[in-house]
Amino acid sequence: MENKIKSKLRNVEYNASEAIRILDPFQAALYWNHDVEPLDIYPSRDFKTQKALIVFVFRRSETKEVFDLWCKRELK
Hints:
This protein is of the alpha+beta class and about 80 residues long. It contains two helices and five strands; from the N terminus they run βββαββα.
């Protein structure tokens, strides 16, 4: 059984396997603008450069349509 992760942003729990992580704040903002709300947001570091970054966590099942639009460069 997979451990649940407790969101620091919302009062929800989620499994890592059902989540996707977006590092591009512009992409995350567009998802959010299309009513796909993040499950969680947390600070992290780039493993190679050690630069600080923000990780946006979304539920995989809620992102299919917006991801398809993002890949086609049609998400506005």
